[in-house]
Amino acid sequence: xxxxxxxxxxxxxxxxxxxxxxxxxxxxxxxxxxxxxxxxxxxxxxxxxxxxxxxxxxxxxxxxxxxxxxxxxxxxxxxxxxxxxxxxxxxxxxxxxxxxxxxxxxxxxxxxxxxxxxxxxxxxxxxxxxxxxxxxxxxxxxxxxxxxxxxxxxxxxxxxxxxxxxxxxxxxxxxxxxxxxxxxxxxxxxxxxxxxxxxxxxxxxxxxxxxxxxxxxxxxxxxxxxxxxxxxxxxxxxxxxxxxxxxxxxxxxxxxxxxxxxxxxxxxxxxxxxxxxxxxxxxxxxxxxxxxxxxxxxxxxxxxxxxxxxxxxxxxxxxxxxxxxxxxxxxxxxxxxxxxxxxxxxxxxxxxxxxxxxxxxxxxxxxxxxxxxxxxxxxxxxxxxxxxxxxxxxxxxxxxxxxxxxxxxxxxxxxxxxxxxxxxxxxxxxxxxxxxxxxxxxxxxxxxxxxxxxxxxxxxxxxxxxxxx
Length: 469
Known about the structure:
Blueprint: H1 5-11, H2 17-31, E1 52-58, H3 72-76, E2 104-107, E3 112-115, H4 119-122, E4 128-135, H5 141-150, H6 160-168, E5 178-181, E6 205-207, H7 229-250, H8 254-276, H9 284-289, H10 298-312, E7 317-322, H11 335-359, E8 366-371, E9 375-380, E10 388-391, E11 395-401, E12 408-410, E13 412-413, E14 420-422, E15 425-426, H12 427-437, E16 447-449, E17 452-454
Parallel strand pairs: 1-7, 1-8, 4-12, 4-15, 5-6, 5-7
Antiparallel strand pairs: 2-3, 4-11, 8-11, 9-10, 13-14, 16-17
């Protein structure tokens, strides 16, 4: 007679092994939120301001003092030595101060100064909550990207999109809860949108990648030309009955349970995913709003329009990545050429997304987050006075949407933009604040793994309540 592991543990050595099994099952229940009935079951801890998140990731690190953090003193002291110590750990040597090559102008009723690199986003400045005092811990792309996405730069941890999806569940059973559009495969790659030890069902679903145009970005195998939906349903029912039968003999198995859920989701996606990706159903005016009618903005414009379509269909977390095989915003040299082109590709589409979300009433319950893994140094790198190095000591990210103050700048870097010095916001604080906006307490959103409770903010992080309206 074949014995299941559960039966073996219950009968061997007077059932002593079942004590270990009971402990494991308790951990599994605790991890899924089964005792508290809170995270993991789609129940927020308190009333959320935002139902979903759209993260606009500028891979490589945009220069804050050239975009949304105007530094008059830097302009005055161009070419002079930095009058204070540089960080003890630097990515590479830099020389003297480098003024921004771009002019800044005040916009909107708030009068916030924005670089001429972003004239279209500047039109939306009164809807932005600009945080000028971000800081991280890692000056290298890989570690900094992992820190931004997962909260850790040294261990494999669940991504913030996975945490949000795990905590809130999904609003649409026919689409993944977490979608990443044209993600980069470098500097952590799939780990930046993976679920690590969280259930595989909350892992990000990639659509294309950064090395291919967005008009070619598709979910693989979403259509089956050989079999009808009825025939596929019969196949799936047979496979699922076998999987569930096996699950009954093994007891709780998160990997197998996630596989069962993923098969069901993949089947349902056939009906809704193609329609969600069909941008031809949008009007010519909408295409123009996102810059899809322009060769320079079409690629990122399509990604932003996809993000809006997924957001209105109930996807919890959508990431849009601006990157290529050259780490898009990483201008150690050719700053003027590189940042000019990069901004020209994303400025109009981002503004189009903000305006479209607002016009449709979606900005009221959608959190939009913009930024890279770090900023750049105010000191010069490379030949020809035309480059900036990585800088995690102080940089800018902005947010817009549900529950936030609008038309404000929060925190500050020093007069040159090297260090965050006023109302400093660590990446853990950013994560805690984001979770709070979607109704999740970052200290309670935990998952039991390897004998301890893990969370996105690890053992740190504080909610920046000053940002809330």
